[in-house]
Design goal:
Layout (H helix, E strand, L loop, with lengths): L22 H6 L9 E7 L3 E4 L2 E4 L2 H17 L1 E5 L5 E5 L6 H22 L3 E8 L13 H9 L2 H11 L5 E9 L5 E10 L8 H10 L20 E5 L13 H10 L11 H13 L4 E3 L1 H6 L11 H4 L3 E6 L9 E2 L2 H5 L3 E6 L7
Antiparallel strand pairs: 1-13, 2-3, 3-13, 4-5, 4-11, 6-8, 6-9, 7-8, 7-10, 11-12
Helix pairs in contact: 2-8, 3-7, 5-6
């Protein structure tokens, strides 16, 4: 683990809090709406239930509680593996919400910009583009967080293509990260790393692509500059020149990943309520937390980690069970490798009324 820890708290470069959504209102809204007919969203089984109307999603607050129960159970449980000699070992079941995993991502993001700094030197420039979607409907009521997240991410391919056109002929990489507003609803921070200078206005086509392809994105929340001519949803920096006390963003990759790291070492269930609601949405949907470009992904790999490993040694071990209390000398529940990796999911469904009903 890197010796550099995640910051304890920091304000984002661009922060548009959903102040109109209070905690109670957000907690009471359903995770996803029931479809008008047939099948709808597919979610983790834990956040669905059967009703007279069909298969429905629980409220966001209840889903957050269930996420916490799942998380606490996961922290105690260990995967049990056995080799050909009958020797057993156990390790904690990995999940992306643990402080260890979040700290690992933070270290990887530091590696990203360190690698680009070594490659491009003082030519490294960074930009951060913030993408949002409305968290309220036309009547001002909180929207289901899954519906909101689908809208927000529905523009991604168009945004990526627009970014490619904007930076055509340049050397560049990106790292996109989801971050929660103070309401728990998500927004996207798209960190762009470019060899050579860029200006905020260059990224207007990226914002336009999001506006065209996200039905609930609004123009007033996606301005390149504000009324005073200051940078708004696009922030451009040159890499910090440490030797001369430069004022650029010293490490935008790590700055972005700090949102995932949160308070250093804190368990997911110790994070603020809005962060836990955000986690519950990612958990319920299985959505990715971050998206790096191919080049960024390579730079984020630890030194010597080529992903191959010793295949012969790996194949000597197989998953044989779960230790609920983490102790091999106590109860071990036998499972297959397929059961170890599976996540039961259900599609929301509206039951059709009987004929003549």
């Amino acid at each position: 683990m890197s010796s550099q820890s995640a910051p304890h708290s920091r304000q984002p470069l661009n922060y548009r809090a959903d102040g109109q959504i209070d905690a109670a209102g957000a907690s009471n809204v359903r995770m996803a709406k029931l479809p008008d007919e047939g099948f709808g969203e597919e979610l983790r089984e834990e956040v669905t239930f059967d009703s007279l109307r069909g298969v429905e999603a629980v409220p966001w607050g209840e889903a957050t509680e269930r996420f916490g129960e799942w998380y606490d159970g996961q922290r105690d449980t260990k995967i049990v593996i056995e080799n050909q000699l009958g020797e057993r070992s156990a390790f904690r079941t990995p999940n992306r919400f643990t402080p260890e995993y979040r700290e690992m991502l933070y270290a990887k993001a530091q590696s990203l910009e360190r690698g680009l700094r070594e490659r491009w030197g003082r030519l490294l420039h960074t930009a951060m583009v913030t993408l949002t979607a409305s968290s309220t409907d036309a009547e001002g009521n909180p929207r289901p967080p899954v519906e909101h997240l689908n809208d927000l991410l529905g523009s991604w391919e168009a945004v990526r293509r627009a970014l490619s056109r904007v930076l055509d002929g340049r050397e560049w990489e990106y790292l996109a990260i989801l971050e929660p507003h103070a309401s728990g609803y998500a927004h996207v921070h798209l960190g762009v790393f470019v060899k050579g200078p860029v200006v905020a206005e260059q990224f207007r086509p990226v914002l336009d692509a999001h506006l065209r392809n996200c039905p609930t994105a609004t123009e007033d929340a996606h301005r390149v500059v504000d009324e005073d001519g200051e940078e708004d949803t696009v922030t451009v920096r040159q890499v910090a020149d440490r030797a001369n006390g430069g004022g650029g963003v010293e490490n935008l990759g790590a700055y972005l990943a700090a949102y995932m790291a949160g308070e250093y070492g804190e368990e997911a269930t110790e994070m603020p309520g809005h962060v836990q609601r955000f986690y519950a949405t990612l958990w319920a949907t299985g959505r990715q937390w971050f998206r790096p470009s191919n080049g960024a992904q390579e730079l984020m790999q630890p030194d010597g980690d080529d992903g191959d490993g010793d295949q012969e040694e790996i194949e000597e071990w197989r998953v044989v069970g779960l230790a609920p209390n983490g102790d091999l000398d106590e109860e071990v529940i036998e499972i297959t490798p397929e059961q170890a990796g599976g996540v039961p999911r259900r599609k929301l469904k509206r039951e059709q009324p009987p004929p003549g009903g």
